[in-house]
Amino acid sequence: EPTVRTELMEQIPPIAIFLQESRPKFPTAFFEYLMPIVVRYLTDVNNQVRKAGQEALLILLEQDLVAQSDIENKVCPILLDLSAPDSDDEYKVEAVNIICKMASMLSRTTVEHMLLPRFCELCSDGKLFQVRKICAANFGDICNAVGQEATERLLIPKFFELCSDSVWGMRKACAECFMAVSYTTSPEVRRSKLSPLFISLISDTCRWVRQAAFQSLGPFISTFANPSSAGLYIREDGTLSIRPSAQDVNTNSCQPSNNITLMSSSTNAT
């Protein structure tokens, strides 16, 4: 019954955590018994079971419970098969979604050598716009996962393609992640290639694309600033933040937090 397999998948992560904590007693139980089940359920005929398997896999990766050898020899080959050009449409959409989500949890070498070539292929998938949409929405995360060299050599040409896609939702997704892509490139690429590309989005015929581009204008401009002097940096979740200067830190060193400082000011004002 699919409901039984789904319930089983939901129990895998806590069991895996228990086995990890009790590793001297169960040194190989997870790798021999549980990991093969997770991998097998990624191709289950029932979509609810597959979804539970995907969620379990991502939790296991987040908790760093999957060995590098299992990732490269078991997980990645399955995802590459599911995202192949002749794969079933539903399986392909699910596979590219997992690839994008897990990229930030894997080593740069694994992503660049095993997943990046397939991601670049999927960016040009002419059959399913849903696949290209997922690639566009997660483009900044992939750039961050592989670093500047691979981004400029392989990903920027694909980004240009997506920014001129005939589906306006694709161009809108590119505008929304423009800052994250720009942050991964060199100042020269930012100035000579991404700036003209951004102008094309901000002048797009679709108002939804233009609106998304205008909302990304400030964050995009911020990537031209020197982080050491401007104090701007990108958090792990991809959002732009401001690092307080040394002078601000020294000024507030006696204060427990900025919130308390504000509360004290408001109290004095009353």
UniProtKB/TrEMBL annotation:
Keywords: Repeat. It comes from the Eukaryota. HEAT repeats lie at residues 115-154. One of its GO terms (molecular function) is protein phosphatase regulator activity. GO terms for cellular component: cytoplasm. This is PP4R1 phosphatase. The lineage of its organism: Eukaryota, Metazoa, Chordata, Craniata, Vertebrata. The gene is Ppp4r1_0.
